[in-house]
Every structure is written in structure tokens, then in C-alpha cells.
Specification:
8 strands, binds zinc ion, single chain, 11 helices
Length: 319
């Protein structure tokens, strides 16, 4: 109620102070690098922005190749929101060719990043360097950090605050609205974090092991106490070696791991191979680096956790 009142007052003052033709200011044009950021921005901006994502639902940001339409979209943007932490190695070239004047927001700013060595060490075996070179053999931006920070909801809250601050700064007339939207969204994310911890916490520790396509869940692992094993490493650009696959299959047999998952934006081939080798049925699809399309099971950041957590638990119960 207090929030609403403050909002009405500030809106009234805002309108009074503006010349008549500025009352219906054009909504902010926000471009995000991938779908999860677009959903966060939508929760903050409400109807006050038009939001588009360069990498869409079920698509893989690791290996994205921008086209002319993306350049045009970025040239028009008021705000560009990216993940950072080396997730968008294609973005520097894209922003330069678009001559973008957009306000640049790194959503992960302030997150405590997991270093790649640390993430790899955590899994107890080494991974390939999926991002060393792009498909034309040019060296790509080195991955110093694991970029998948959004898989810890507490980091998601940092993302939302950064997005809200940037919107408020770019469009001060609606700052109160953006910050109020962000606060109610953050309240929802905090509850979701506690729920995820409690749900997974009920499972015996020795059962909390999962095989996935690529290393997208190191932050989830730290936050919610699930061990993720992946033969592919952090990127999706290269296939794992036969040796890495064999080692993983051995470990699955030794530790009786039966929870194996595909990811919505990844190549299912590798997990199909593992399923065949071990005779274990696939646990389904996890949403890691992209949301589903609107009609799918994980069309929002919140829905992604609401979907992933029970699906993980069901599969881990069979370990
Ligand atoms: Zn990824």
C-alpha cells in the first residue's frame, strides 16, 4: 500500500513536470543477449519496455552467430543487457558493427564468480577447453570464469538489481516503478531459493549426483548441494573425447548414478550415447542456458527452477 501510494505520487509529479508531448514517452527498447535476461528485464520493466533477446528460447548462446537482423536490433536499442563472465564472446564484434549507443549492462556484475579451474576441480576430472577456438579456427575470448551464475537464485537477485538500477538510470521518470517491480520479483526469487534448498535437502547426500550435457550447473551445485558430472566441459562447441565419455560411464557404474539429463539447448547425441552404453533411461530435459518457448515447461526464470528441481529430485531418487 505504501509502495502504491509512493508510486502514485511520483507518477503524478512526473507527469506534472513534463511537457505535454512527453507524457507518452516511447517505451525503452531493451535488447538482452539471451532469454533468461529478457524474462528478468520483463519482470522489472512491466509494460514500460519492448524487450527482445538476441539468442531466443531453446537456443545456445555459446555458439550463437549474429546475423544482420541482430545488428539492426542492437543499433536501435536503448539498453543492452548481457550476462558477462565470458558467456557472450560474439558480443564485442556485434556491438561494434551495430555502432550501438545502448547503455551497456552486465547483469552478473557483483556476483562472486566460480573460476573455471575451481569448477573443473570440483568435478574431480578434467574437461576439454570447448571455447578455445571458434569453428573458423580463430581464438575466442578465453573463459576465465564459469558464466552460468544465474543457476544460483541468489545470483539471479543480483542480476535483477543490476537490471533495475540500469533501467531507473536510463528512464528516471519510471524509476520508482522499476525498483518496486524489482523488489516484489526479488521477494519471489528469495522464496524460490528457500524452496529449492528445502526440496533437495530432503534427499540423502549420497544420492545427489546428476549427469548432464555440459558444465552449466556449478553454481546450482554449490547453492543447492547437488553434484553434476559432465563429459563435455563448460562450452558446447566441441564434443567430449571418447576417453572422457568412457571415464564418465565407469564412474556412473561405480557410484550407481542413474540420473542423466539432456539440456534444452544442447546436442542430445552425447546423452543418447551414454544412455545406450549404460542402459539407463534418460531422466528428461533440464533447462540450463535458455528458457523454453512460451507454451513449454520453462518459459520464465521462475518456471525454469520450478521445473528443473522436481525433475532432478525424481531422477536422483533412483541413484
Ligand atoms: Zn552453458
Amino acid at each position: 500500500m505504501k509502495h502504491l501510494l509512493a508510486l502514485c505520487v511520483s507518477l503524478a509529479l512526473g507527469f506534472a513536470a513534463l511537457p505535454a508531448q512527453a507524457e507518452e514517452a516511447a517505451p525503452l527498447k531493451i535488447v538482452t543477449s539471451f532469454s533468461i535476461l529478457a524474462d528478468m528485464a520483463k519482470n522489472v520493466a512491466g509494460s514500460r519496455a519492448s524487450i527482445t533477446s538476441l539468442v531466443g528460447p531453446d537456443a545456445d548462446a555459446h555458439v550463437f552467430e549474429p546475423g544482420p537482423a541482430d545488428v539492426a536490433m542492437l543499433a536501435e536499442a536503448d539498453i543492452l543487457i548481457i550476462n558477462g563472465l565470458g558467456f557472450e564472446p560474439w558480443l564485442v564484434r556485434l556491438a561494434a558493427s551495430a555502432k550501438s549507443k545502448a547503455k551497456f549492462v552486465t547483469a552478473s556484475y557483483g556476483v562472486k564468480p566460480i573460476e573455471l579451474e575451481e569448477a573443473h576441480h570440483h568435478h574431480g576430472h578434467s574437461h576439454g577447453h570447448g571455447h578455445g577456438h571458434d569453428k573458423d579456427g580463430h581464438p575466442t575470448v578465453p573463459h576465465d570464469f564459469d558464466p552460468h551464475a544465474w543457476q544460483d537464485l541468489r545470483n539471479g537477485i543480483i542480476y535483477v538489481r543490476n537490471i533495475a538500477d540500469a533501467l531507473a538510470e536510463k528512464d528516471p521518470a519510471n524509476a520508482t516503478l522499476y525498483l518496486a517491480n524489482a523488489e516484489s520479483y526479488i521477494t519471489e526469487l528469495k522464496k524460490l531459493h528457500e524452496w529449492a534448498r528445502a526440496e533437495i535437502g530432503r534427499l540423502p547426500k549420497e544420492k545427489r549426483k546428476v549427469i548432464t550435457t555440459h558444465d552449466a550447473f556449478a553454481y546450482f551445485s554449490k547453492a543447492y548441494g547437488v553434484e553434476f558430472l559432465s563429459p563435455a566441459g563448460i562450452g558446447t562447441a566441441s564434443d567430449p573425447s571418447a576417453e572422457a565419455l568412457a571415464r564418465l560411464v565407469d564412474q556412473m557404474r561405480r557410484e550407481n548414478i542413474r540420473a542423466i539429463f539432456m539440456e534444452n539447448m544442447g546436442n542430445p547425441r552425447m546423452m543418447e550415447t551414454i544412455a545406450r552404453e549404460t542402459g539407463i533411461e534418460n531422466g528428461g530435459t533440464l533447462y540450463s542456458d535458455a528458457l523454453s518457448a512460451p507454451g513449454g515447461p520453462a518459459p520464465t526464470y521462475v518456471a525454469m527452477f520450478r521445473y528443473n528441481v522436481p525433475v532432478l529430485i525424481e531422477a536422483m531418487q533412483k541413484n
